[in-house]
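Much of the work behind modern protein science is quiet bookkeeping, done one molecule at a time. The protein below has been through that process, and both of its lines are reproduced in full.


***
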Amino acid sequence: MPSVAKKISKFTKSEIDYLFSRARRIVKNQACTILMAPRQNQNYARVLIVVSRKVAHAPGRNLIRRRIKSIFYEEKLFTYNFDCVVIAYHKMVALSFDELKSILISAYHKVLHEDEGSVS
């Protein structure tokens, strides 16, 4: 699936507008806010990463982006039916890879659990 790896964070302007209009907040803490929305007309879910210049200098922002994309790909989060938006705050720079991984995975478990509850 290497072809998916390069596409999991590519969005057009209209897709971003659609994503934000349907997204709901799943996690909010001092490090980040995670929003999820139903997957758009793709064969895989995607992740939108928002890291402001106020968060860190360019190497720090790029590190955050690389970590999130890596977790998204390695844990196969792109197979779920939800597109994800991660809005990073200054405290995210201090998080380790494992802490960030647990936040993202718990967000997906939370949204999947809520989704199952609404179906029953």
About this structure: The two ends are 33 Å apart (CA to CA). The chain has a mean pLDDT of 88.
